[in-house]
Amino acid sequence: MIRVASDIGGTFTDVVLDQDGRLTTIKVLSTPAAPEDGLLEGLQKVLAEAGIAPGEVDQLIHGTTLATNALIERRGARTIQVATAGFRDVLEMAHENRFDQYDLGIDRAPPLIERALRWEIEERSAADGRVLKPLTDAAVDAMVERLAGAAVESVAITLMHAYANPAHELKLGAAIRARLPNVAISLSSEVSPEIREYERFATTCANAYVQPLMGRYLSALADELSRQGFRCPLFLVTSGGDLTDLATAVAYPVRLVESGPAGGAVLAARLAEAAGLEEVLAFDMGGTTAKLCLIDRGKPQTTRSFEVGRVHHNMKGSGFPVRIPAIELIEIGSGGGSMARVDSLGRLLVGPQSAGSVPGPVCYGRGGTLPTVTDADVVLGKIDPGRFSGGVGLDVAGAEAAIGRDIGAGLGLETDLAAFAIGEIVDENMASAARVHAIESGKAVAARTMIAFGGAAPIHAARVALKLGVSTVIIPANAGVGSAVGFLAAGLAFEQARSLYMTLDAFDAARVNAALGEMAGAARKLLGGSQHAYDEAWTAYMRYRGQGHEITVSVPVAPLGESAADDLRDAFEARYRALFGRIIPGQSIELLTWTVRVERREAACPGVPSVHRPLAAKPVGPARTVAVFDPVAGARMAYAVYDRPSLGPGRTLVGPCLITEAQTTTVAPSGFEVAVADDGALVLTRSARPLLEAHP
Fold it and tell me: Strand, coil or helix: what is 19?
């Protein structure tokens, strides 16, 4: 098998070619105006380096932030929302709460679809699916005529309780498709068939908003790949870390919102599982953002609801929710391209604004004028100007001038200290985000092993680990393109959710079996039909009557029989007791939603391919030494510089040192030892208590 994985990030596009476990990697600058240009450039370079023709490739895997960026930047399609009469303002009312109760000047971000484009139609279904007000042919015809004159690109149909009875949405959607075949249609009963109308409406509108953009992009990309000689299928990476085919991605582009970061979490999870690590903190830092994920027993935390486009200090509630299967990540605007500035109060701020690839950091020499984290790393001596990612030559003098002018002068610091301050701010931001995320999840972070990847993470990982009290940091081979490598470990799968309310006291096994069978059948159809073998997983979302939120309960995959209600009660109480320490005797238990996850068995990747050809262990001296600003000494120190490909398994190094490779540099400051594992990973371990550890 010859497979190629590509990850388009905000600054760099990573491409990895896997030929029977031998990887060839390329990192090129992203092209925001036309994302496919950077991807195609990377494909051409990686194929040329590997000596492979396009027609020899068996599988293409692609992850992109295009859908995410379109939602955040509000540059999606002209979208009309059609809602049940009386419910056009659900998007604007949201949860009717203040996400920051102490901010008197709070300003909520406007809804994705403005009020003039939110239309109503007369119809109504009850929560149990009963039709309270029929959807008449006259109402449908009037709505279609109105849409025909509105220059609309996409329509989001969000009718009340359509998860319980989709008939009205299906009828209206079919009529619009018949009259307006070029208009994209998103039905809430297909995109997010779950209770809670705000989340369902928001998810469906987000899907409709990006559907034309993603449809054009993916279709054009597929056509261009075919023109260049590729004959293999193109798969997309979803927010849940699974692969999906082109048609499903075009129909449900909202599922691609966190596709790139999900690949990194998959990589870390597979590495943790292979190494037998019980508790891991995955740390992914690229050019635009940093992502952190908690992984327990080889499984990343997952969620079915998260927010996009938070506008108020990254505060929960200031974005809009989407309900899709996703790996639970905390993402902050701290990347190599994050710009630093001194505000009117004399405070040093870093991010979330990023220089991206255009114009990029000052040191890129492509027109950037504001200093960034990468500029600070270059000034401090942590990055070799001659071996930077993507073949970009670095302007060290330009970076020094920018930091001295914009940061040093404003803070009254020498250039080295100003650059160190930039790095210290961004490192503390990432450490603080990790602490908060762990606390919110009821977990500890200090005892975890950190797995760091991404172009900038190996540079900052040791310092972040010190701040968190983490003792061990693993830098996998080819860490600079870690998310793309993680794509190669993803399986072809689809997860579907459906709300089906009932109490355990009135449990209807036949009704549940029918729904689960229908959901599993639809997922298999999307994954290729009955000619393939599949693995399934069922989950029930349950709560005590009167509670506002549910907990997840795993359900054995088998037809539910007479004892199902008792078995579900036992499983719920065991899960509830594990989470909260006690149960509530005698309280009625409700079932709200079911999920079915189906994975195509033969498409599942057996694991992360070997990314390093181990060399024989032998003494290797540093290629040279460079002067690097060391936070422990508070001054520049001589750091030994090693070339990573020359380090064989069993080799041990003592910090301070730099370990350079094609796509990143690993910084091991004073107080760290570095061991090279059998698979080529670098294992950084604290060997002594650094001076600044007590006050990081």
Answer: strand
- Helix axis angle, 66-73 to 197-227, nearest 10°: 130
Q: How confident is the model at residue 391 (pLDDT cuts 50, 70, 90)?
A: low
Q: Give the end of a domain, one of 158, 186, 211.
A: 211
Instruction: Please tell me whether residues 39 and 88 are part of one structural domain.
Output: no
Tokens describing residue 362: 């000052």
Torsion of CA 83, 84, 86, 92, to 10 degrees: -30
Angle between helices 197-227 and 35-50 (to 10 degrees): 50
Task: Provide the pLDDT for residue 308.
Answer: 80
Whether pLDDT at 615 is above 50: no
620 contacts 647 by C-beta, under 8 angstroms: yes
Regarding whether 24 and 85 lie in a shared domain, the answer is no
Q: Given pLDDT bands bounded at 50, 70 and 90, which one contains residue 689?
A: low
Q: Are 480 and 662 in contact (CB under 8 A)?
A: yes
Q: What is the DSSP letter of 604?
A: S
Give bridge partners of residue 334 from the DSSP assignment. Answer: none
Tell me what pLDDT residue 608 has.
Answer: 55
Full-model pTM: 0.89
Does 412 reside within a domain? no
Residue 337 is assigned to a structural domain of this protein: no
**Higher per-residue pLDDT: 696 or 363:** 363
Q: Is 101 left (phi over 0), alpha (psi -120 to 50) or beta?
A: alpha
d(CA 584, CA 568): 15
CB 569 within 8 A of CB 507: no
Task: Give the range of the structural domain holding residue 676, as residue numbers without chain letter.
Answer: 624-686
Do 212 and 79 touch, CB atoms closer than 8 A? no
Domain CATH code at residue 181: 3.40.50
The residue behind tokens 């279609």 is 144
Question: Which SS3 state, helix, strand or coil, does residue 153 take?
Answer: coil
Counting Cβ atoms within 10 Å, is residue 648 exposed (0-12), middle (13-18) or buried (19+)?
Answer: middle
Distances (CA, A) of 473 to 507, 641, 681: 49, 19, 10
